[in-house]
Design a protein that fits this description.
With 156 residues, the chain is of the alpha+beta class. Helices cover 42% and strands 23% of the residues. The protein is built from 4 helices and 8 strands, in the order ββαββαβββααβ. The protein has helices at residues 22-57, 86-102, 133-139, 141-145; strands at 2-4, 8-10, 61-67, 77-82, 109-111, 118-122, 126-131, 152-154. The protein has a 6-stranded mixed sheet. The radius of gyration is 26 Å and the shape is elongated. The relative contact order is 0.14. The mean pLDDT is 80.
């Protein structure tokens, strides 16, 4: 405490008499988080639709979408599709990468493009596996990720 010549004792840090609106701040933060979650859900759904539409346009075979929302921290969705040959798998991957870039999802990671037996495209929210039929049958990745058939849907 400091001694003032005019007033006697003074506090070095005066108390704030205003009450902090903590409940209002917490509810505002919760509402903002809910809006962000809703925006993310809409963005992920648009990404899934874009991927499935592009694969359908490119005549991908046996397209399967596995919903991982709330099940895995890796991604929100997994798409598995087959192409008829190395060239078909490479073309599907190339067209998908161009479509993702055109729609603003340009920061994707790609593995397997030189050989095109198994091309993996990681968008962050959705992971796409493009296989030749023999390689897909060998790895059987759908069985690994689809623990129960309720989350596995055949993409049309």
């Amino acid at each position: 405490m400091l001694r003032s010549p005019k007033r006697g004792f003074q506090r070095s840090n005066p108390l704030n008499t205003e009450s902090a609106p903590r409940a209002q701040e917490a509810s505002a933060r919760a509402a903002e988080a809910a809006r962000a979650d809703q925006h993310a859900s809409v963005r992920i759904a648009a990404l899934e639709d874009l991927i499935l539409a592009r694969l359908d346009d490119d005549k991908a075979q046996d397209v399967v979408f596995i919903d991982l929302k709330g099940k895995s921290a890796v991604a929100d969705g997994l798409v598995v599709a087959s192409g008829r040959s190395h060239r078909h798998v490479g073309a599907m991957a190339d067209h998908l990468l161009r479509a993702l870039k055109d729609e603003g999802y340009g920061r994707v990671r790609v593995e397997g493009m030189p050989h095109c037996d198994w091309v993996l495209i990681d968008t962050g929210d959705v992971i796409i596996h493009l296989f030749r039929p023999e390689v897909r049958q060998f790895y059987n990745i759908e069985k690994i990720w689809a623990v129960d058939s309720a989350h596995r849907t055949q993409a049309v």
